[in-house]
Amino acid sequence: MKNCVAAIFLLVIVTSSVAVFAADINIRAGIGYEVISQEFFLDSLTQTGIDSLDAALTLSTTYLDELKGFVRFKSNLLDRRRLDLTAQFEQTSDLIRAKLYSDSRLELGQHRFQLNNELEVRTGYSGETDAGEEFIYGAARARLDLRIADGWDQFWSIRTNFVDFDSSGDLSYNQLRVLGSIGLSRTFRNFSSLSGMFFVGSRSVPDSSLLDYVNYGVEANLFAFYQGGDLDLTTRLERKDYNQPDHEDDYTRFEVLGHNKLELGGGWLTRQDIDLEYSSFSDSDLVNVDYIRTLVYLQGGWNRGDLSLWAGPQAEFLAEGQTELVNAADYSEYAFRIDIDYVNVRSVYGSLEWSVGVRDLRFEDEFQSDFRFQRLTVLGDAHLTAGLGLNLLLSAEWEWHDLEDEDNRLYLISSNLTYDF
Questions:
Q1: Contact present, 380 and 350 (Cβ < 8 Å)
Q2: Which of 18, 188, 300, 341 fits a 20 to 30 Å CA distance from 308?
Q3: What is the DSSP secondary-structure string of 18-66?
Q4: Which residue, 106, 139, 117, 99, is CA-closest to 12?
Q5: What is the distance between the terminal CA atoms of the chain, rounded to a whole angstrom?
Q6: Are the beta carbons of 144 and 156 closer than 8 angstroms?
Q7: Residue/partner pairs of 393-398 with CB below 8 Å, 24 or more apart
Q8: Kind and range of the H or E run holding 157
Q9: 17, 23, 29, 35 alpha-carbon torsion, rounded to 10°
Q10: What is the pLDDT of residue 278?
Q11: How far is the C-alpha of 148 from the C-alpha of 262, rounded, in Å?
Q12: pTM score of the predicted model
């Protein structure tokens, strides 16, 4: 592992040096701070269901609290349309990370080829590291688009990624994934598009072959502009078969994602979203039960210049298959949601999402109960002065139960202060 780390760091240094002499280069340096913290009460227990959040029996837990420094080199080799190369180095109080990205594009007449690569190394240099903290991760994606007729393209794609841990644990197995797809797309004169594809893939886990699987399925996408509005619709059907006896953990999953936006005139708009997910397991047990989850929301909005405001109701429903020993985690959730977005491409991007509502469980027991909630997400990216930038992610969730000792709080903060040379 240590030899690999040294080799990767050398690679980052070499490629960064090449970029300096071969092409235009952007250098960004900065500091960042990240924290994930949870507050809960003495009698809190882990909830069941697909949305469960594991919690230990303590009053407060901080999962991540680190200050980091980083430097990034980004260059455009050959020209801005053909190859981008990025190398980044990060250091925290006990970890060092090196990352290398490359994006290349090639035009072959009306045909297009794109190749994306990513390589990351993370290693500790101070104190002891836990299983899963030190690893090498790599990913690659290649896609070929062939123009077969006016507006029609056939595409071939293959993606692969691997992770090699320095020490394995219950959740840190070395593995290799490969996914290939073939599809057809149609682009219309108004820039609307329709595409469909078939995909097949696999995962290999050398240290635990029972975690190996094969997955395959189909996906279709529609993006359509119409008078005063646009529609974005995705459907996906997938089958996943694990290398386990009696079809354990095998499932079929169907998902529909839909988004529709319509301009009403005078800066007023409306939009509707739906997220429908259905999973059916071949062999249901205490952990794997069939479920259907539906999320819908309707918002009215107003847009003027760089500012847009949205508000409206949101509802989410989960229905699980019932087991003999454990109650299903069925719930109905109702909320009111507000979104505020400000986009000025030269200086500031800001987004706020706030919702308040209730979750009503079909079955209440010692492990789960109804609650009221408030959720807040804030995203910000600002150019403070020439070269100086600040970006921020803040996410928080509060739960209030009838019994105070079941209340829960979750906080996430990620921030970076950067300077471009």
A1: yes
A2: 188
A3: HHHHHS-EEEEEEEEEEEEEEEE-TT--PPPSTT-----SSSEEEEEEE
A4: 99
A5: 33
A6: yes
A7: 397/373, 398/373, 398/374
A8: strand 152-165
A9: -100
A10: 96
A11: 33
A12: 0.83
The tokens for 310 are 């949205």
Q: What is the largest CA-CA distance in the chain?
A: 68
User: In the structure, how many helices (H) and strands (E) does the chain have?
Assistant: 1, 20
Tell me which residue of 157, 213, 203, 163 sits closest to 183, measured CA to CA. Answer: 157
Query: Token pair for residue 184?
Result: 């057809």
What amino acid is encoded at 224 in this protein?
Answer: A
CB atoms under 10 Å from CB of 40, counted, come to: 22
- Where are the extended beta strands (E) located within 150-250? 152-165, 175-187, 193-204, 213-226, 229-242
| Nearest C-alpha neighbor of 359 from the set 338, 327, 330 | 330
Residues 43-97 have pLDDT tens digits of 323 333 333 333 333 345 666 788 999 999 998 776 655 788 899 999 998 889 9
Distance CA 176, CA 204 (A): 5
Element at 343 (helix H, strand E): strand 331-344
Q: CA 162, 164, 165 angle in degrees (round to 5)?
A: 140
**Span 360-370, pLDDT tens digits:** 998 887 778 99
Contact 378, 408 (CB under 8 A): no
φ and ψ at residue 192, rounded to 5 degrees:
-70, 160
Query: What are the φ/ψ torsions at residue 20 (nearest 5 degrees)?
Result: -60, -40
Per-residue CA distances from 126 to 2, 42, 130 (Å)? 14, 33, 12
The whole-angstrom separation of Cα 28 and Cα 69 is 11
- pLDDT, residue 157, reads 97
What is the token pair recorded at 242? Answer: 């694990």
Token pair listed for 95: 């970890």
Q: What angle do CA 407, 413, 416 make, to 5 degrees?
A: 180
Amino acid at residue number 71: V
Phi–psi pair at 55, nearest 5 degrees: -140, 130
The residues pairing with 271 across neighbouring beta strands, listed in sequence order, are 261, 299
**How is residue 17 written in tokens?**
């040096």
